[in-house]
Specification:
Monooxygenase; mainly alpha; membrane; transmembrane; SemiSWEET
Length: 85
């Protein structure tokens, strides 16, 4: 298998992995089981992958991780909106 195809498949799968969680949170408006620390660490790590992708000029790394950052920031916003004090 071509390494670019493998990278794109891996990027797509990891990028969409949090979408079911985001949909569930939006539908239920419940974030009690979401870890804020996990979200912050994940967004930080994904952001560093985007930066790395720019440094290496690797579009699959940039696009897949940038999409994942957007999904996880959306989840973070939901966390902040729906979190019960």
């Amino acid at each position: 298998m071509n390494e670019n195809v493998l990278g794109i498949i891996a990027g797509v799968l990891t990028s969409i992995s949090m979408i079911p969680q985001l949909i569930k949170v939006i539908k239920e408006k419940n974030v009690d089981d979401i870890s804020l620390v996990m979200l912050l660490v994940l967004i930080s790590g994904l952001s560093l992958w985007v930066w790395y992708g720019f440094m290496k000029d690797e579009l699959p790394i940039i696009v897949s991780n940038a999409f994942a950052v957007v999904v996880n920031i959306s989840l973070l916003v939901c966390y902040l909106v729906y979190k019960k004090s």
